[in-house]
Amino acid sequence: MAVKKTKKVSDDTTRIRVTEDRINDAESIDISFVEGNKDKINKEKILKEKKDHSFLYGIVKTLVLFLIVAVLFVFAFMYARDNNLLENVFHIKPQVKVQVKEKEVKTMDYNYLFIGDYHTEGLEFEEFYKPYVKVSNNDYTTSDILDDLRSNIYIYNPTDVFIELGSNDLTDEDSISEMISNLKRIVRGIQNNRSMATIYVESLYPINDTLEEFNSTLSIETIKKANKEIQSICKDLDVNYIDMYKELSEDDLLKEDYTDDGIKLNNEGYKKLFKVINRYIEDERD
């Protein structure tokens, strides 16, 4: 009987079983037995880990340095600000904080300005205990005031302006449009240059042509027509309209108690005028 011999396999060699399933599966083959291959793989792994760690360390180092610089800059800026270095070196003025007391309220003194023709010229202010300026003349027209708004109005810096003009403009009905145009320009000039001022525009005063002393070219019809236009521009320009015609008239005529010649006011007329003006002033102050 023949004895079957068994081939001896060296301990230094590893048998690799190759089958149809593994013949192309190179990645699954263990080649770690190749001399020096393990050391090479470990070195590459260590180098890769060191490289990754160096990159992360660089980022952290940069962030820390940036934070330190930012903190130092903030402290340096605060020091420079507190010691006025910014103002001296960079000409930057420090911000000044102003403390205002809660109950401390600063108010502007009232300054009243009265502009007008013969009606305003005859107005006395003996019982008017408030600061005021009167710019008036018997012959003033709207054009006279409009010619120099600065000298007639702006320089007084009024808080309240009472405008009584127009009677001297009305030599005939055709002059109404020019008078209205001038009034608009006067009001707009005040609004643009003294915007805080409160403006009052008075209507034309009534007349009484039934009196023997009456001597004027004015007519009731012209005055009433002009007053409608004045009221309209006051509404358009958002200023106060004072209907003196209504306050001083009776049956569409200047009340006889208020005049001696049918045109100008007498003492009783001015007393009534003062009451009307004070009423508007007191209403505004309330």
Notes on the protein architecture:
The chain has 286 residues and is an alpha/beta fold. The chain folds into two domains: 32-98; 112-285, SGNH hydrolase (Rossmann fold, 3-Layer(aba) Sandwich). The protein is built from nine helices and seven strands. The chain has helices spanning 37-82, 85-89, 118-121, 142-146, 149-152, 176-193, 220-237, 244-248, 267-285, and strands spanning 112-116, 132-136, 160-164, 198-202, 240-242, 249-250, 253-254. The strands form two sheets. The chain has a five-stranded parallel β-sheet. A two-stranded antiparallel ribbon has the order 6-7. Strand 6 and strand 7 form a beta hairpin. Helix 6 runs parallel beside helix 7 (220-237). The protein is elongated, with a radius of gyration of 50 Å. The chain starts with 36 loop residues before the first helix and ends with a helix.
Number of helices: 9
Runs in which pLDDT lies below 50 for 5 or more consecutive residues are 9-16, 25-29, 91-107
Number of strands: 7
Portion of residues in beta strands equals 5-15%
The Cα radius of gyration reads 50 Å
CATH class of the largest domain: Alpha Beta
CATH homology group of the largest domain = SGNH hydrolase
| Oligomer kind | single chain
Helix-strand string? HHEHEHHEHEHEHEEH
Overall, the morphology is elongated
What is the number of independent domains? 2
Average per-residue pLDDT, rounded, comes to: 79
